[in-house]
Amino acid sequence: MESKNYHEDLSHIRTMMERSSRFISLSGLSGVFAGLVALLGAVYVYFVFQREGIDYFDGERNVFSEDIVRELVIVAVVILALAILSGYIFTAKKSREKNLKIWDQTTKRLLFNFAVPLVTGGLFCLGLLYHGMFVFLAPATLIFYGLALVNASKYTFTDIQNLGYCQIALGLLSFFFLGWGLVFWAFGFGVLHIVYGLVMHKKYK
Q1: Dist. CA 82–CA 77, nearest whole Å
Q2: CA distance readout (Å), 54 to 10, 51, 144
Q3: Would you say 41 and 76 are in contact if contact means Cβ atoms under 8 Å apart?
Q4: Would you state the torsion angle of the CA atoms of residues 162, 168, 169, 173, taken in this order, to the nearest 10 degrees?
Q5: CA–CA separation, 117 and 4 (whole Å)
Q6: What is the pLDDT of residues 4-46, one digit of tens each?
Q7: CA end-to-end span of the chain
Q8: Residue 4: which H helix or E strand, with range?
Q9: Which of 35, 56, 84, 126 could disulfide-pair with 193, CB 3.0 to 4.6 Å?
Q10: How far apart are CA 42 and CA 186, in angstroms?
Q11: Using an 8 Å Cβ cutoff, are 147 and 169 in contact?
């Protein structure tokens, strides 16, 4: 009996330490929603190309005008805003279900470690836009987003780290296929997010 209580106490202490050092309320459903939004955005962008008379899949290197890039940036900002909003809603819901605080020191550390590479990448992409280097935007966003995930993963589930590595690898690969950024972007922010979200939801529900 004493041995059983001893193991239960150890399990309880381990759980408390996990809760105090890691943000465990992250919802897999937010990843699924973000991925779906990204895919819808990619489809919208494809029809923008069709409207402008651009056959994206004709096998040619695709370089676009400033007007089209400006519209693509707006679409990307809307997708980002919806992803952040959905992430907060699903995560807050999961926190309430687990009776955990959504805002504490762990959350602050996670957000800070996530924000540093992400904000750096955002400023880097603004520089690319300023100099008209539009073709490098998709690789850059994937790489910096992946770095942000890896940097923040030590404060939440390790699955986030694996997603980050995949995003970085995809971004580096896309540098060798310039002009096909929409495909890589849709796969990274769309398909990978959906797969990750479903795995997380099943694993930690």
Answers
A1: 9
A2: 62, 7, 28
A3: yes
A4: 160
A5: 46
A6: 555 554 454 444 444 444 545 567 788 898 899 999 999 998 8
A7: 31
A8: helix 2-21
A9: 35
A10: 6
A11: no
